[in-house]
Amino acid sequence: MPSDNLDDLFRQHLGGHATPPGADLQRRLAELAEAERLDSLFRTGLAGHASQPRRAVWERLEDEHLHPAGTRRRVVAWWQLSAAAVLLLSLLAGGLLWRNGHVAQPGGELATGRAATKPPASTTTGSTQGLAIPAETAIPAANAISSAPIVAKEPIARTSTSPSEKNKKAWASQATAPGISSSSPPIASTTRAGRAATAAQAASSHHLPRRTLDAATGQLARTGGRQSPAGQLPPATTPAALAATTAPGLALVATTMTNPSEVVEVEVRRGPAPAQPAVGLASVVATAPVASPRRRLRLGGLLRQADHLVHGEPVSLAEATGLAETVTVEARLGGRTLRRTVQL
Amino acid sequence: MTEPDLIAACLRGEPRAQRQLYNQFAGLMLTVCRRYLKRPEDAEEVLLLGFAKVFRALPTFRQEGSFEGWIRRIMVNQALMELRRREPLHLSFEDFAQPENLATTPATADTQLQAEELLALLQTLPTGYRTVFNLYALEGYSHPEIAEALGITEGTSKSQLSKARALLQRRLQGAAVNS
Hints:
The complex is a heterodimer. Chain A is α+β, with helices and mostly antiparallel strands. Chain A is 52% helix and 10% strand. Chain A has a domain of 240 residues. A 4-stranded antiparallel beta sheet of chain A has the order 1-2-3-4, covered by helices on one side. Chain B is globular and about 50 Å long.
């Protein structure tokens, strides 16, 4: 068979023959078309679609990433700093107030707690000079108030001539409210037992100007004329006892009068220097204390002493507490003078 | 403001330009993020981090291609990172192709669906299916690129894509029947 005839043969038989694709191929093609249709569906359906984000997203982006030290944060920082400063100042002011109140309170406690037991050996200071209070034991005082209360008011009235005295009176009356009725047995007994100590405490008090006549002192003032015997003078009025209790004091004078003509003058002075000459014996008593420094713990001194302690060096209590190294106690009894210097 | 001016202003650190750029692309990019992450808050987190990267990487943009495409790519990468962190992909690539889940008949439903409905349909897919479908069908990635991006084989990528399509077709059909 010639080649041309062969070619014509295949061309003629297969040229117009149609072979349909198999089922598998058809399925695959349909899937592809469907997939393309599906993809196109989502692609076109979601193209250009925008979802609005919340405003907080931009704010966070701005705050956390774009402008982390932005204006808003600076404003917040200023507010925080201002609040912190105000708080700090308030705390400081409160601390100072509290501290002042705390420092002043021991005197108050002394006045309140011991006003009822205040001994006849009342001490006065320069601001109340001229107030001569005869000393007496407590028992006669307690007895005397019930006998002649009108007379008891006289010394108080006399001391209230100055405005400060009025304040003191009011303060004392408030502070001693529970113990105003000083004629009650407990007060009388307390006075008797603790007289020596209270006398010394009265002498060592830094708030002597505040300690003025209260009910007890009024009674005592009134009973001062009873001329109680000197033998009832308690032993704690000795200079040694006073020195032990008045050591931190600066220049305090306590005078105990056993009778109007005999005056015991006790002077406590900071440091070893000789005592000032006594002010008058008949009048009272008090060389005004030089402005006594407050008894405060000094932080610097404490730290320094702690450092000394760590390094095995001697520790000075006086430096740590701000107290004097030595205290001189001088007592005059009639013509005799006793002086003792106490090393702290 | 033209796009180059906007980019230049952003490069200068001008807040207004930054805000304008964000406003211009945030909506589109949030949709991109929502295609990958089911939870809206996660999508917004990705948007936030993605824009942070955009502004940080802005000096590296050469202005040769599409700016939107550049941002979209950053968003997609950020979404993939977030997916790896939140929804480990290897778990979701487990065989979900149960017979009942596969489409047995070609979808014939009318596909006039709204974008939100399409997004909802996408979010019904398992994470692996959804991710491969997004990358292949909507982002135009090839299977080798998907395999590299997700750390899977090309065969897995093809398989996941096929199964994702089957699920979508089935659900589209169901949606058409319900409507």
